[in-house]
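Comment on this:
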Amino acid sequence: MEKLNLKDFIDFKYISNLKSNEKQTRLAFVSGKALEEKNEYHYDLYTIENHKAKKLINLKKHSNFIWENDDTLLFAYAKNNKEEKIEKDKVSLYYRYHLNEEKLEKAFDLPMPAQVIQVIGNKLVIKAQLTPDEHQLYLANEADRKTFLKEQKKLKAYEDITEIPFYSNGNGFVTQKRSQLFIYDTSTKTFDLIVDPDFNVNIVTLSKDLKHIYYTGKQAKHVRSLTSHVFVYHLETKTTEVLYQKDDYNISSIFLLKDKVIVEASDMQKFGLNEDGNFYELKHKELVLFKTFGLTVSSSVGSDSRLGGNPSTVVYKDKLYFVKTNDDHTELITLDMDKNLEQVFVMDGSIEGIQVLNDEIYMVGLYKQKLQEVYKLNGSKLTQITRFNSIVFKNKYIAKPKTIIYKDRNHEVKGFVLYPKDFDPNKTYPAILDIHGGPKTVYGKVYYHEMQLWANLGYFVCFANPRGSDGKGNEFADIRGKYGTIDYDDLMNFTDLVIKKTKQIDVKNFFVTGGSYGGFMTNWIVGHTHRFKAAATQRSISNWLSFHGTSDIGFYFSKDQTAGHPLMDTDLLWQQSPIKYAMDVKTPLLFIHSDEDYRCPIEQAMQYYTILREKGLETKFVWFKGETHELSRGGKPQARIKRLKEITDWFETHKS
């Protein structure tokens, strides 16, 4: 059996945007693939015909599409170099694909970067991120538009910042940008802005008869709000009705179940920002509890082998189908008009997305140790529809996770161990503890490329879901003000149990790594124990005080998670900051960070690295240019290769 290679992920196919047509009789999706030499990702558009995937067209770097009607697909696309240049002038080019005739044709251009949400006859519902000045893109005549674009290029040298957040991870600077909602008439080529120019639109859902647009959002202020209001726009009368205007709920989703408007929402009162919500019905401008739930609606099972997203909720025949995260896996659940919750299917892995067609359930799944594929659910049995990744692991060793559960008096910590390739019970092997991000996510028994690579290189790899993780309800996930305490205890107790149960682990060659929250915890661990031979911290937090003013979410996330304010509770935040304990660090530490990571800004690594270098500790800082917080999952292919090689080499170099 051959070894898995670091670069094998270049051949992975990533499935996203699983969507059905309006009648819910046809399916389409895109399949993405890394191109190492071009250092980018390209996407192919597929339909499913007779339970088989059929490729339609290569969309190049574009990945979004919608169903224009039951037989045609609409998508942003640049056919040639000339059109790619046109796109750079902030124009959205849309093409149409006729499924029956297998014909591609130009559909229309939009004079601004915009996403088409729905087609209603000769009108389009579109969403666009615009500053107040950028409304000139569609309002100005051609000559004035060109002048405006020239002036805009001069502004690239600076940013006028008047609000927070001033930037957003993956989106760059967003100060004064507003998510706007339009109706565009393709026959008259006119735009009707249906919200205020200073309004931020969040969720958009259309009624089944396409006569009403339901949306959430709020008037912009200098500090972005975490709560939303709910509105409905009546297309026939061109009027907007306020459905809910109180400032007390974070609304995650809107569902239309026949005559009911249902939202999934949390008031964040008991468990803070990460509190799992319940289902509420909008009645007389009030949110009335419809069904208590209190778990995550979607998959929070982590993996570095997905690219793009899929719908995790769908309404079919007046019933809501949705994915929930439970413990270390996902489940398909339905909620009906009578408030009944029913478990439809338990996935040994992660349900990435769902659609229901002709009473048949289709899903994108990370099933067991396979990569993403499309499946059809037959009762309790999965039938695999696509086989995009069937030969990627042919004759290669893929370790099966062995479950290990640490039991305390009042809680359990579930974790897993991957055994090294060619495992010999009479030998000893080095080991790696890998810590997930979030912290409100989970590890499950799904494929994780970095871990499988290390198992192929002869390591035990262990990973767990300590307190703070998702899947076990709000109380288990709530570690506000406790970072580095109960979660640290859980991870160390789990590690001790793994060593006790796995005699072949060489405890003198035990390593630790993690990203985001996992990076925070790696920083914390090396300041509180010397048990690990070397460590690699990725996109981490080291100082809660500076994080508050530099992260795109810092102004609310740091206060919530540390249970304190950086000025009024300085000592509390400092006690929870790994950098406070930097002088106690003896473990060789590798830093992996990206300079466009606006979630955990690179200054977090700069501070910690500088202190360790000053004190003479063995350390290294790999600074990724132009990458974001998503480096390990959606970073450019060459950067992902470099990142994983650096971590692997760091551990290999420090093995004794």
